[in-house]
Amino acid sequence: MKGFEWLARSLKESGQTHLFFVDAVLRRTLLELERVGVQPVLAHTEKAAVYMADAYGRVSGRPGVVAAQSVGTANLAAGLQDAWLGRSPVLALTGHKPVGHQHRNAYQEVAHAPLFAPVTRHAAQVLEAADLPRQFRQAWAAAVAAPPRPVHLDLNGLMGEFVETSETMEAPAALGGWTTPRHRPGADPAAVRAAAAALLSSSRVVIVAGDGAALSGCGAEVLALAKALRAPVATSLGARGMISTRHPLHVGVVGNYSAPPANQVVHAAEAGAVHRLRHRRPGDSWLAGAEARHAGGADRC
Q: Fewest beta carbons within 10 Å, which of 203, 237, 286, 301?
């Protein structure tokens, strides 16, 4: 099986519906994707393609796949910063000029590894199709591991053509079950009871729901808790929309990029139920002055 057939069929069998790209890259793969029912989406710029893949990954739980040829690799890498900070699963596929052209001042070719090092969890070169099944599976697994992050596969050839046209003997991968979150551990029961007692004993309670709560899809449970405690709900930027923003108990996004009332509500609370908020997101100072009661560091509701 040719590399382009393996890649296209693996994406299809892994549940992917779209691939985002800037031409010209993986042209044989793109034609095969259309043939098997996966829609390639041509973007105006590499950054725009990355942002689409980022959104796809956050919504689907599978890595959003984005591709660009060697010439556009630096632009693609620059677009991964928000996906990295937002803990989003993205699989970046790029071409690189052949080994014989490396370190010879080839036109529009720079070292790719340093560009991706700050914004990816895993990066590897793929020299031929025989390497693709192993590298593809490893990259996919790294992308969806907790916390999810972008990954990068650098394919041999300006457009990845050496990988596309060489052969692999392996069957296509079916990785649709490898999604994020793969494992959401529950809190220690004793910690939950202690947190519940603290919340019930407080007269001014606020709930702050973060990205982990949004990934767990527990908006209904958070809202039920809020109603039981008669507590307002604030969210991180990444968790906005996990409950209706029109609900009377929803007070908005907290943090440096929020409306002041949400921060004021949190600061005025006696205790807070914090549902898996990553404090290195924008707004890591919002909890000053309020005592946070963590439900045992729960990763799910």
A: 203
What pLDDT is stored for residue 287 in this prediction?
Answer: 47
Two tokens, residue 12: 């299809």
**Measured distance CA(153)–CA(43) in Å, rounded:** 20
Query: How far apart (Å, rounded) are the C-alpha atoms in residues 286 and 254?
Result: 7
CA dist 216 and 247 (Å) reads 20
Q: Supply 103's token pair.
A: 């370190």
Q: Kindly provide the residue ranges of all beta strands, DSSP E only, lying in 131-275, ordered along the sequence.
A: 151-156, 205-209, 233-235, 250-253, 271-275
d(CA 95, CA 118): 19
SS3 209: strand
Nearest 5 degrees, angle CA 27-CA 28-CA 34?
A: 90
The CA distance from 47 to 261, in Å, is 33
- In DSSP terms, 64 is beta-bridged to 90
Write the burial class of residue 184 (CB in 10 Å: 0-12 exposed, 13-18 middle, 19+ buried): middle
Show the tokens assigned to 249.
């108990």
Q: Give the strand order in the sheet containing 90-96.
A: 39-42, 18-22, 64-68, 90-96, 151-156, 122-126
Peptide bond between residue 262 and the one before it cis (omega within 30 degrees of 0): no
Q: Does residue 134 sit in helix, strand or coil? A: helix
Query: E strands of 164-223, at which residues?
Result: 205-209
> Which residue is listed with tokens 């993986």?
26
Q: How far is CA 109 from the centre of its chain?
A: 28
Tens of pLDDT, residues 8-19: 999 999 999 999
